[in-house]
Design goal:
Layout lengths: L2 H12 L11 E4 L6 E5 L5 E9 L2 E9 L5 H16 L6 H8 L3 H12 L5 H15 L13 H15 L1 H20 L27 H13 L5 H13 L3 H5 L6 E2 L2 E4 L7 E4 L2 H8 L17 H15 L9 H12 L4 H8 L4 H7 L4 H19 L3
Antiparallel strand pairs: 1-2, 2-3, 3-4, 5-6, 6-7
Length: about 375
């Protein structure tokens, strides 16, 4: 007989009716974690419990419904309860504790309800994705004041391994802001934010510019798909010609297209104006105008998925497999720098987020801005469209 068989027999011996519950409820205790068990109710409902001696009396503490908690999570909670008991604390106080301090899950819902209306639509979309994929189950079963700095560091490290450094940083910033609000709203004491001081993952400092030969090959690849992929070709071309971010072009509406400029409403830094050179304006003029609130470019699939898939194919055809879509923005800035444009001007062209730089270029003359747009647009047009 193996040790496993002996443990199984012992577990069956321990499966007994809890005193006072005869004929009503039965509790099957675990043979590895002392005192932890599964209570089976007459209705068939099951819940996890922990039986320990507290203050000289034997107590049965209900951990949670087995239909909601997994056994692994319930055991984690049981271990924390055992530690509290051994430290002389009474877990029964947790019920009183819960009346004034919310759980992580409940506070996340509250924070979203209050904060979400203040976010830009694009920010809300991204935050909702992060909430579903990374935040909802981050600290299951914990009250917000039970989450310490070490928990935050471990969670960030685990997410870095599973989702990548960028995703872990973005998710951490959301929770850091949330716990900051918990302090401001009086749920946590000042300077107790567990995410304060957690080191961000270092970003990759990769800025790739394209040579004239690479731009020419990209232009040829675009020309081959102009008939069968007009939306995709137009989006890629505008990204190259304007230095805009991907979302700024994909979410572009006809109300934002105003002659020789784009008056973008929802960008990373808020509303901003983007000048259009002749080639960029010609691309937009080639599409039939629609209602102001409707997007210029419509895709059969999700816009991001559609354009990313097209770009992966396009860069292979052009022989620029290591070029990311965002590198078209770097390429635009590089050409502007080669044209002897100042840093404030380049910041203006790209929608720079630095407040001091923004303040310096906010009063630039529109005519000079148009000349710069035309200069950079001509340089890109000569490489991209004239073969």
């Amino acid at each position: 007989m193996t040790s496993y068989d002996l443990k199984r027999i012992l577990a069956e011996e321990l499966a007994r009716v809890v005193p006072g519950d005869a004929g009503k409820r039965r509790t099957r205790f675990d043979y590895v974690l002392p005192g932890f068990g599964e209570r089976i109710h007459p209705s068939g409902r099951k819940s996890y419990v922990l039986q320990r001696t507290i203050g000289g009396k034997q107590r049965l503490i209900t951990i949670g419904d087995a239909a909601i908690l997994t056994e692994r999570i319930a055991k984690d909670v049981a271990r924390r309860l055992i530690l509290r008991i051994e430290l002389g604390q009474n877990p029964a106080d947790k019920k009183q504790h819960g009346k004034k301090t919310p759980t992580y899950a409940s506070f996340l819902r509250h924070y979203w309800k209050v904060a979400a209306p203040t976010w830009k639509p694009s920010t809300l979309d991204i935050h909702d994705i992060y909430r579903r994929t990374h935040l909802n189950h981050a600290f299951t079963g914990k009250f917000i004041d039970e989450i310490c700095h070490a928990d935050a560091v471990r969670w960030h490290a685990t997410l870095t391994r599973s989702a990548g450094p960028g995703a872990a940083n973005r998710a951490m910033e959301i929770l850091k802001a949330m716990f900051g609000k918990a302090e401001a709203w009086g749920y946590l004491p000042e300077h107790s934010n567990p995410f304060r001081g957690v080191k961000r993952n270092k970003g990759r400092k990769i800025e790739r510019s394209l040579s004239k030969a690479e731009m020419a090959r990209l232009g040829e690849a675009l020309a081959q798909h102009r008939a069968d992929k007009p939306n995709e070709v137009a989006v890629i071309s505008l990204l190259a010609l304007t230095g805009c971010r991907r979302g700024e072009i994909l979410n572009l509406t006809w109300g934002e297209v105003q002659g020789r400029k784009l008056k973008l409403i929802d960008t990373k830094i808020g509303p901003r104006i983007v000048g259009l050179g002749e080639e960029a304006k010609a691309i937009l003029d080639g599409f039939p105008r629609s209602k102001k609130h409707e997007r210029v470019f419509r895709f059969d699939t999700l816009p991001v998925s559609g354009i990313e898939g097209f770009w992966r194919m396009l860069r292979v055809e052009a022989g620029i497999e290591d070029v990311r879509l965002h590198d078209l923005r770097h390429n635009y800035a590089s050409l502007a720098a080669r044209s002897s444009e100042t840093l404030p001007m380049i910041g203006s062209l790209l929608g720079h987020s630095n407040v001091r730089t923004t303040a310096r270029y906010a009063h630039l003359d529109d005519a000079y801005l148009r000349e710069t747009v035309e200069s950079v647009g001509t340089e890109i047009r000569s490489q991209l469209f004239e073969t």
